[in-house]
Task: structure prediction
Amino acid sequence: MLSFDDFKRIALDDKPVFDKHYEKYPPVHSDNLFTTMISWMEYSNYHYVVVDENIVIMTQLNNKIRLRPPSGRQNRELLKQVLSLAVEKGSDEPFGVVNVKMKEWIEKEFPKLKFLEHRDYFDYVYLASDLANLPGSGYSKIRNRLNKFKKNHAYSTEAISEENMDEVNKFLKRWCLWKDCDSDVVPANEKKAIFYSMAHFFDLGLSGLLIRISRNIEALAVYEKMSPDTAVVHYEKGSPYFDGIYKAINMETAKILQKDFKFINREEDMGIPGLRHAKMSYRPHHMVEVFHVKKEEIVKNIL
Result:
């Protein structure tokens, strides 16, 4: 029987476990990626357990425990055990990050269970070719700002590497000063996540691109393979002094990724209005919808 004592805090050395598992069962939502979890460890306190061909993930945010559906071969008994643990010590919404395919399977097993959509955590997924080429009238405003940026600023691009990593970190420190990263909990933890991922950039198998203007780094993007047809962009940061630079780093990154991937996952908007508007303006091909379940629903309909 599954218990909380079985769960282990995620550590960098666990990457091969997740790599092997995700080769067979690719993650659907970006928050289940190993890079995301290990980088945001201080914020969400990720734990996991391997059960047969499944990985079960647990988070503890503000002392609220939440569990996620098992990733792997469908196993009704294991699912019931996870739901039981969620009720035992979980928050009022103790079971979440349930994607559509998983939701459909759970609904077949437990038809009365009600799911609530978690819109703030929907991932935005785009056609890589759309972000690279910005075709049609729907992208006219973005093209206009990008063309204005190109007209006003000569720039070059290069891959993030060991040779320029010190410069990259100096740029990110400047970016955090511009954004006042330490002003609130979420940006402060984003700062920790970014610098952790950069400190372990090569251990995590990440790739990245930067833009230079007058020899200085003024924007960058960090990304990796998520599944055979999808890459995920974890971070995209730019100087506030160059209007349109985010359009440029987005487009240049997509030009690289479209060679190997059909889709680009640009993660969620966390309910931030400006971020939601920006992500929607790029016309997502689809969203990775996720849902959660209230504790009372599990008690009433399953246990």
About this structure: The chain has two domains: 4-121+290-301, 124-267. Residues 24 and 196 are 27 Å apart (CA to CA).
